[in-house]
Amino acid sequence: MATQNIYILAIESSCDDTAASVMYNGKILSNVVAGQSIHEAYGGVVPELASRAHQQNIVPVVHEALKQAQVDKSQLQAIAFTRGPGLMGSLLVGTSFAKSLAYGLNIPLIDVNHMQAHILAHFIDEEGSKKPPFPFLGMTISGGHTQIVKVNSYFDMEVIGETIDDAVGEAFDKSGKMLGLGYPAGPEIDRRAKLGNPKAFKFTKPKVDGLNFSFSGLKTAILYFLQRETKANSNFVEDHLNDICASIQYTIIGILIEKLKLASKQTGIHHIAIGGGVSANSGIRKALKEGEGKFGWTTYVPKFEFTTDNAAMIAIVGYLKYLEGDFADQSITASSRLQI
Ligand code: KG4
Ligand code: ZN
Predict the structure, then answer these.
(1) Atom of ligand 1 nearest to the CA of 183
(2) Distance (Å, rounded) from C-alpha 105 to C-alpha 58?
(3) What's the CA-to-centroid distance between 67 and ligand 1, angstroms?
(4) Rounded to 5 degrees, what are φ and ψ at 59?
(5) Residue 44 reports pLDDT greater than 80
(6) In whole angstroms, what is the distance from residue 249 CA to residue 193 CA?
(7) pLDDT tens-digit profile of 1-14?
(8) Is the pTM above the cut of 0.90?
(9) What's the pLDDT at 11?
(10) Does the beta carbon of 280 lie inside 6 Å of ligand 1?
């Protein structure tokens, strides 16, 4: 096993983005993502269409990642891939591709947990990047997950809170759908929230004990609110869209910050790192920064391109596992419900 000049190719295909990245000694040389616009027409990801699109995208995306990195596949020391969690059909495309390539090149294969990767994205070696010290609290907020994780070391992580129903990204996307916004609605709600009044409308926060989350009640509250208001004024949504978006975002962020405060109090840990698609949200980024002054936190927010699904985060986990000699063999299979 080479211990110097480590080139790793990483592949991510857990949901609706096909992504590949080449990493050299912990530094990103390329980070290519092909999104799948086909789902927009359906207002959500259609699993069967996602796996077919992955099949079409995977070869060109991997080629592009190698080309941008100016690396030939003969230089690679290992292939890392997302084993789970995610959509089974989508995961199978990346898993089979990675296994075949590692077999063909006769180099190690490294399986990566997607949720660990969202957290470990903070360890990508970048100019000016700030790495959290262990132990720290990781909060993964995405379209499929909402978790608070106590991170003791790279591979010793403990989930101390999670959603009991919808993920926070789903709360954004489903609210957006009710407002007639496209999929995914998170970025559009974020954009409109900046133009609206966050206190224009009030939504009750769910009452869930401890560090767990619930977002399905909020969805219902928004639905009833919209039904009531549009009965009185059929143009209510058009007339107040920015205020509605700002109020929804304000409520969601309030829920996240409340649980982080509790987690920090219970564990005595003040270093907080977020990851996952929703960590791109400008409101949550601002609220975390404010938490530094208000609650004595030190917060870590990934670079924008490492927030939504990407292969650079898979590559860093691949690199850390490579250094530990932690490899998978050809009998490994995708696992849609893989836990942290
Ligand atoms: O991590 P990710 O790319 O995929 C999953 O693993 O789920 O997260 C996608 C989610 C979607 O729900 C999307 O609406 C949300 O991240 N998202 C945002 C923003 N950008 C993406 N939510 C709120 N504000 C944003 N700026
Ligand atoms: Zn994700």
Answers:
(1) 14
(2) 17
(3) 28
(4) -65, -50
(5) no
(6) 7
(7) 777 889 999 999 99
(8) yes
(9) 98
(10) yes
- Name the one residue in this structure whose structure tokens are 């709360």: 171
Distance between CA atoms of 280 and 67, rounded to whole angstroms?
28
Question: 339: which 2 tokens?
Answer: 């836990």
The token pair that represents 42 in the structure block: 């359906």
Residue with tokens 């106590």: 150
Distance CA 89, CA 166 (A): 22
pLDDT band at 155 (very low <50, low <70, confident <90, very high): very high
Of 247 and 44, the one with more pLDDT = 247
| Phi, psi for residue 25 in degrees, rounded to 5 | 45, 45
Predicted confidence band at 131 (pLDDT cuts at 50, 70, 90)?
Answer: very high
Q: List, for residues 64-95, the tens digit of each pLDDT value.
A: 999 999 999 999 999 999 999 999 999 999 99
Nearest ligand 1 atom to alpha carbon 142? 8
Ligand 1 atom 14: residue of nearest CA: 186
CB 188 less than 6 A from any atom of ligand 1: no
Determine the distance from the C-alpha atom of residue 85 to the mean position of all C-alpha atoms in its chain, rounded to a whole number: 12
Three-class DSSP category at 85: coil
Tell me if 86 CB under 6 Å of ligand 1: no
Length of the chain: 340
